[in-house]
From TrEMBL:
InterPro entries attached to this UniProt entry: CH_dom (IPR001715), CH_dom_sf (IPR036872)
GO cellular component term, pick one: cilium
GO BP terms in the entry: cilium assembly
Protein name listed in UniProt: Calponin-homology (CH) domain-containing protein
Chain coiled-coil ranges: none
Domain Calponin-homology (CH): 26-145
Length: 244
């Protein structure tokens, strides 16, 4: 069985068109803060249903973001698969510096997993520089929509047997695109044939990524296949996410 997908470069207009909340006629910073506020107040009830963080309106891009909660929720809006792995153990009402630091470590670890392509440390978030934070949020605004789930690839295998599915990519661009391949979380039931961790797709060519599932127990297993092109210079391909 094969799943086909045409790939392309990261398109800023296409990505932004998926953003559900905008402020017309305002400054660019107002658009970003409105976007953050919208996702924070929606996702805080989903990411932390038992102990949600307090509602808030984002009015700046430094102190309102330094505890990591707002940036975690906007990330979860597009990458919900990161919540159980990284965000559920965050302090929703941090009262000490160490608790806020814990939150920012969780957040930056999640960004590292999806290869966000922007260099930032926990201390950068806790001691925010307005210009740097503006650049970071603009990067999230442009890139996070490309992490939305494309489709589900299903596997059916009896115990101790394997089944493969092929994801076929077709590059319609004039330049080669390189993708980093990641399966989240690390799971022995799923593997990439030939143990590839990156994949180069030349211009006007097609290529296959073969995913193998081995049924090691009777329990249903889920995972995420992430093809990350936004972190690979010099040409940046958009990201593709598949549920396995």
């Amino acid at each position: 069985p094969t799943v086909g997908m045409k790939v392309g470069m990261l398109d800023q207009e296409a990505a932004v068109s998926e953003v559900p909340h905008k402020t017309k006629g305002g400054r660019p910073e107002d658009v970003l803060m409105s976007w953050l506020t919208h996702h924070y107040n929606t996702q805080r009830l989903i990411v932390w249903p038992d102990k949600p963080s307090r509602p808030r309106t984002v009015t700046n891009l430094d102190s309102d973001l330094e505890d990591g909660l707002v940036l975690a929720t906007v990330t979860a809006a597009y990458c919900p698969f990161l919540s159980p792995l990284h965000f559920q153990d965050m302090f929703t009402q941090p009262s000490t510096v160490s608790q806020a630091y814990h939150n920012t470590v969780c957040l930056t670890s999640a960004w590292d997993k999806i290869r966000l392509g922007y260099s930032v440390t926990p201390r950068d978030l806790m001691r925010p520089n307005v210009v740097n934070m503006l650049m970071l949020v603009a990067h999230l605004y442009r890139n996070l929509p490309s992490y939305k789930l494309e489709t589900t690839v299903s596997f059916m295998a009896t115990l101790n047997t394997s089944e493969t599915q092929v994801v076929t990519l077709e590059n319609s661009e004039e330049s080669s695109v390189t993708y980093h391949i990641e399966i989240l979380p690390n799971n022995s039931s799923f593997e990439i044939d030939d143990m590839k961790d990156s994949f180069v797709l030349k211009n006007k060519q097609r290529g296959d990524i073969t995913v193998r599932y081995t049924a090691r127990s009777m329990v249903k297993v889920d995972a995420i296949l992430l093809l990350c092109g936004a972190c690979m210079p010099p040409k940046f391909g958009r990201n593709y996410v598949f549920r396995l």
